[in-house]
Amino acid sequence: MSEVNEKTAKLADFGLARYSLSQLTNQIEISQTFCGTVAYISPKQLLNIGYNPFAADCWAMGVTLFYMINNILPFGSSPGIKQIKQLKTGGSEYVSKLYNKTVINRISRDLRELIDHLLVYDEDKRWTITDVLKSKWLGNN
Fold it and tell me: Among 27, 34, 73, 103, which is least packed, fewest CB within 10 Å?
C-alpha cells in the first residue's frame, strides 16, 4: 500500500490497459485501438486515426477536470466531427466559450491554463503529464 499524501489524486480506468512503449526501442507505440467513452476520447480517436496513448490520456484528464469544475462535459456526451473541427480551427478560444458562465470567473487562471493546454486538438502541442506536473495550478512551476 502506498503512503497517503494530501497532494495525491488517483483516477484509473482499466477498460483499456496495455503497454504503450515498445519493449525493443522504448518509444511510444501509436495505438490503433479505438474504444472508450466517447465524451472522453481524443480527437484522433474520434476520427479513427492512430494516436499517442499518453496524449489521449492527457486529453481525457482535461475533459475530466473541465467536467469537475463546470458540471458539464466540454463537447457533450457524444461529440462529433463538428465539435472537433471547431476545436481544430478555434483552439483555446473555442474551449473558453465552453465554460459554464457562472463558474468561469471563480476558477483560477492557472486551472484554466491547465485545462486549455490539455484540450488541444494537436496531440503534439497538447501538454504532457510532465507539463501537468510542472503547472502553476499544482504549484510546481
Answer: 27
CB 138 within 8 A of CB 132: yes
pTM, 2 dp: 0.82
3-state per-residue secondary structure call for the chain? CCCCCCCCCCCCCHHHCCCCECCCCCCECCECCCCCCHHHCCHHHHCCCCECHHHHHHHHHHHHHHHHHHCCCCCCCCCCHHHHHHHHHHHHHHHHCCCCCCCCCCCCHHHHHHHHHHCCCCCCCCCCHHHHHCCCCCCCC
pLDDT tens sequence across 9-58: 666 666 666 667 667 777 777 787 777 788 888 999 888 899 999 999 99
Say if CB 55 and CB 126 are below 8 A apart: yes
Beta-ladder partners of 51: 31
| Domain covering 20-133, topology | Transferase(Phosphotransferase); domain 1 (1.10.510)
Question: Given this model, what pLDDT does residue 8 score?
Answer: 65
If pLDDT is split at 50, 70 and 90, which confidence band does 1 have? very low
